[in-house]
Design a protein that fits this description.
The structure is a single chain. The protein has 17 helices and 13 strands. The protein has 489 residues and is of the alpha/beta class. Strands 3-2-1-4-5-6-7 form a 7-stranded parallel beta sheet, with helices on both faces. It has a 6-stranded parallel beta sheet with strand order 10-9-8-11-12-13, sandwiched between helices. Helix 5 packs across helix 6 and helix 5 crosses helix 7. The longest helix has 27 residues.
Length: 489
């Protein structure tokens, strides 16, 4: 009888691949603390090509000595009839399912042992169509917040009870265990119920109840009420709720001390600039791999930062690619900042401001003592990194579930403030609003003191969660036993 095999299937988005790899590495780190049987991991890679960050992540794993191998799935023709990145990803993952089935069966054949579990991205619930046939338990690794998990689980119920568009609702949307969400703060894919972006989430939300379990990148102390509501089945009335395993924060290895950011060994120039700034004086602006802005918005941002009077480090990506294209690869780095920044801006802010037109080492920046606040799109990975380093946030959501995350970070958890984002104008924020928001976040007023204190509290909690005896540590041990002992033949 061969060893236990775990198979992991991320979606092709860069952030989803990297966090799935990190979750696999975490399984190995926690394995030494259990009596569970030995195992190895195969990660199935979708997509036509890797981004540089993914390539660096793979090389890091291959050099680590961990029993993790990568297997690239055959290329399929990308779906052409889709409504946006979420619908595109869902359709692409469905097209890949025959290849996933073959890969899982082949791994079983070569290892002479059943695959102990298939752990898939939440866009890949189509795997449930064949896992029962192969006798393989199927789990989802949920890469974002417990609030969004609660919403996905509850979405089929909302869909039946409220047939109108969310923005037509006169009251807030109520999700079990989540603070009230105003209709205009619902996730971007949900703003048109006729779109494939919306219907794919209804579909996957229904299928979650067929899973053997849901592994989620959060921790009990961060979202206790939401996790309790989910675990009690309040989000799936009349249906069975699979067990939930909060194992976070699952962070990239360069965040938790495992290596250099994205494989880059040379210290970034912006860190030397931060070394010269006073402690707690800099606001950092960064909007993820897909967060880019048109020239008019860049000009407003520059005006707001200049007027704020605060020191700033700004990672700026100018819009150049269509949103759907960004699912499969990282956007190209912009090289035309001088064309979009106001004339004289760089000279006027010299010494107190720095604009990066390339990749930024986000974790290293957030860890720096000079950084006091973080203006962020509220992508979940960025939220967790910010909390890991105890840096409060100013939410400027742009796409996906980020509008929901911004509300939860501010209203439910209390570690963030929010900008007034004009969503109907493409998430526009004017110069005066950015100036006001930065002042609130960085200043000595009651709001700034409150979110800074809460961020420090959550920093301590996030680190305790993964330590021996912590909530996520204990949950991961429980998960490993279930994966490798209870279900092993």
């Amino acid at each position: 009888m061969g060893e236990n095999k775990l198979v992991l299937l991320p979606s092709p988005a860069v952030g989803h691949i990297i966090t799935m790899v990190e979750m696999g590495k975490l399984l190995f780190r926690r394995h030494s603390d259990t009596s569970a049987a030995h195992f190895s991991i195969t990660i199935l890679l979708p997509g036509p090509a890797s981004a540089p960050a993914v390539d660096a992540c793979i090389k890091s794993v291959e050099a680590s000595g961990l029993d993790i191998e990568f297997r690239r799935l055959p290329r399929v023709d990308p779906p052409t009839d889709n409504d946006g990145p979420e619908d595109f990803t869902s359709l692409l993952m469905q097209k890949l399912m025959p290849h996933v089935k073959y890969a899982v069966a082949d791994i079983q054949r070569l290892s002479a042992a059943p695959v102990a579990a298939l752990i898939v991205d939440f866009f890949a619930t189509g795997a449930l169509d064949f896992t029962r046939e192969l006798g393989v338990p199927c789990y989802v690794y949920f890469t974002t917040s417990a609030a969004f998990l609660a919403l996905m689980l509850y979405l089929p119920t909302l869909h039946e009870n409220f047939p109108m568009e969310f923005e037509e609702m006169e009251e807030a949307v109520h999700i079990p265990g989540v603070c009230p969400i105003l209709p205009l703060s619902m996730p971007a894919p949900f703003m048109s119920k006729k779109s494939g972006r919306y219907t794919c989430f209804v579909h996957h939300g229904r299928r979650f109840c067929e899973l053997d379990g849901i592994i989620i990148n959060t921790f009990a102390e961060l979202q206790p009420e939401t996790l309790r509501a989910v675990e009690k089945g309040l989000c799936v009335p009349g249906r069975w709720m699979p067990p939930v395993f909060p194992v976070g924060p699952v962070l990239a290895s360069h965040v938790d001390g495992g290596g250099a950011s994205n494989g880059r060994l040379r210290r970034h120039e912006c860190l030397a600039w931060l070394d010269e700034q006073p402690a707690g004086s800099v606001v950092f602006l960064c909007f993820g791999s897909r967060g880019s802005f048109e020239a008019a918005q860049v000009a407003e941002m520059a005006k707001g930062l200049e007027r704020s009077g605060h020191r700033f480090l700004w990672a700026l990506r100018v819009a150049s690619l269509k949103e759907a294209e960004l699912v499969m690869r990282q956007p190209e780095e912009p090289s035309r900042l001088e064309e979009v920044l106001p004339k004289g801006f760089t000279e006027r802010t010299k010494g107190r401001g720095m604009v990066l037109a390339s990749w930024a080492p986000q974790a290293d920046i957030l860890a720096h003592l000079a950084v006091r606040g973080f203006v962020t799109h509220c992508g979940w990975n960025s939220c967790l990194e910010s909390l890991w380093f105890g840096v409060p946030m100013l939410g400027w959501p742009l796409y996906a579930e980020q509008h929901l995350n911004a509300v939860v970070m501010a209203e439910d958890i209390g570690v963030a403030l929010r900008l007034e984002v004009e969503r109907e104008k493409g998430n526009w924020v004017g110069a005066e609003e950015l100036e006001r928001g930065v002042g609130r976040l960085m200043g000595e007023g009651e709001e700034g003191r409150r979110v800074r204190a809460k961020a420090k509290e959550m920093m301590a909690a996030s680190r305790r969660a993964g330590e021996e005896g912590g909530s996520s540590f204990v949950t991961m041990k429980k998960l490993l036993v279930e994966l490798l002992t209870k279900r092993a033949p």
